[in-house]
């Protein structure tokens, strides 16, 4: 496997995972806002925070109104993490390795691009939004599913999986961070605290699995424990770190990357996350994100093409 | 509203489906009938299916326009072009003969130059050729093959005679469109393939791979064959990917390759360096190796020519093969065939005036309004002047250019290119076409694609079929009339 190809596979997969995650977060927020009473509203600001773009957003937008925020998240040209831009990046990267990707996968990425681009008015409208986002999520699943079922599970597949998993861990940590931080907990909102935690879980497709695994009602400490420490839920951060380790184990020269994953994993395992109060949770999530970035850097250092003309952007934030 | 072929006007051109009396030619009967039975609604649907398939399959080409790059879906017409199998077999023989002679010619030019010593080919032409590579003199590529892949452009004139218009021996492109056009047609009209005896074309990628593998300097079971692309910005990038994918080879860029101290070529992989045996290069000669050619080329690989000249890697096509693809050399192909094979050409050359010759140059300048004037070394239809369709001012500019460098110009009579019915709205209307078959030579055998890429000048009356200049394409069906 060419180093350049390994690197590109990694990014294609990361971008698609990102688009899917953003789509899910929007969809869930949309549902949540319908449930919350008028005065009690977190609005769309937190979603801009999840993708780490508050400052950039405010440069061109005066407020976090639904229409402005959605436009920015779905198709914002100036937002590198907008769904459309993620899909464009995935498609452009995929195009440079079309020889490697199965045709069906390329066609799906390509038609996803046309879908996202040509149906944006659906996504921006209240009625069409659910179906639009659902289609994006399904399409991402289809792409990963087709890859799983049709591509050789060789080194290339390792990079595809790795890109997806590291992005997932990154997103899970962001969602947990921002969502718990902005949770409205005043007296008036008390009755709604529960649905806000449920909505956090839903943003991670985690609600059903939480119920099955934790067997308790939805409450702060357990939600944080589940999202951070579950060894069985595929979007939990610990699960993702375990997965990263088993992915790179068969690769040659993997000592450095295994060490850094191990460090992150041991640290997370040893942390009593249930007890983390808001400010501390935020700081700890920051630490996790720094570790994820370091894992990316070691991976790139070990396997990707080392040339001055690196054009791929680093992970966001 | 259904298609009435009786109402189709061939306007005095040779139409490949309908003859001068308005009758459908033998090889197209089932096709014509099938289309005549389609309702306007079915037609619209078929076109929508084709458009969607092209978009989803991502069949694109790239156009450069004022410095920016635009990726366009490939214009495609759903009426296929049909050619009878009997006629095609003759064309095939002619192409094989031609390519065999051209390879002998190139090898001779880089060795003893017997053809020049024997006075058949003028030395002056060689000296001025921009595609002759001094660096290739004396090198012996495997099996003495230089032009492994040749794309020859064929046209028919007003009488239907097939002519070779030019041979592309550098990095001919288009074969992926030929293959994709077929898969689009199979999606659009599967029933036609059941009813008719259309010869398949799917074999090309495996033939290409076998030919490439046969060039490997290391005898082993699985030689490492790669496709070298200039990158995603190249207009034929789609094709580079397509071929690499179909052959299961790595698609590499210059930066993926490195020539080590042992003068062997390696690619940079996630497990370290890995030796490369055969490079199907889709980069022009001058960008191949900055040590030998353009020093600031970012696309090539430093040391590549060194590795090649030592026989450590095969380059396909060989550097320098383009010497036989220039439009002035073209004029000598009948003599070249005679000289090396002692045969008469089985396929006709379009009569060509060489501006190098003073008399012929005078003729060209005096008759420029009737001729097609071509620069010797441009491809893609750039720099072309079509006399009858040009303004006086354009003609004047062209004459000035000819006078500055006569060797660089040739001219041919305007051919009344044949037409094929092509949809203009819902009505079929004749559009001019050419045909680019691809010929593979390994030194052991020569293989020709079944048919080739039919390019269509989509604009009414236009003669320019290049995709970069408003051309489109059609699927090409070689039809076994006897099995029909």
Binned strand content of chain B: 15-25%
The biggest beta sheet of chain B is recorded as: 5 strands, mixed
Largest sheet of chain A: none
Could you list the spans of chain A in which at least 5 consecutive residues all have pLDDT below 50? 308-317
Based on Cα principal axes, name the global outline of chain B: globular
N- to C-terminal separation of chain B? 28 Å
Order of helices and strands of chain A: HHHHHHHHHHHHHHH
Number of helices of chain A: 15
Tell me the β content of chain A.
Answer: under 5%
Overall geometry of chain A comes to globular
Mean pLDDT of chain B: 90
Helix content of chain B: 25-40%
Distance between the termini of chain A: 30 Å
Report the oligomer: heterodimer
Number of domains of chain A: 1
Pfam families (chain A): Alpha-E (PF04168)
InterPro entries (chain A): ATP-dep_Glu-Cys_Ligase-2 (IPR051680), DUF403 (IPR007296)
Protein name (chain A): Alpha-E domain-containing protein
Domain DUF403 (chain A): 1-304
Q: Can you put this structure into words, describing what you see?
A:
The complex is a heterodimer of chains A (317) and B (484). Chain A has one domain. Chain A is 71% helix and 0% strand. Chain A contains 15 helices and no strands. Residues 308-317 of chain A have low confidence and may be disordered. Chain B is of the alpha+beta class. In chain B, helix 2 (40-57) packs across helix 6 (175-188) and helix 3 (85-109) crosses helix 13 (333-341). Chain A binds chain B through residues 1-6, 92, 95-100, 103, 106-107, 110-111, 114, 155, 251-253, 303, 305, 307, 309, and chain B through 55-58, 227, 231-232, 237-238, 240-245, 249-253, 255-256, 267-272.
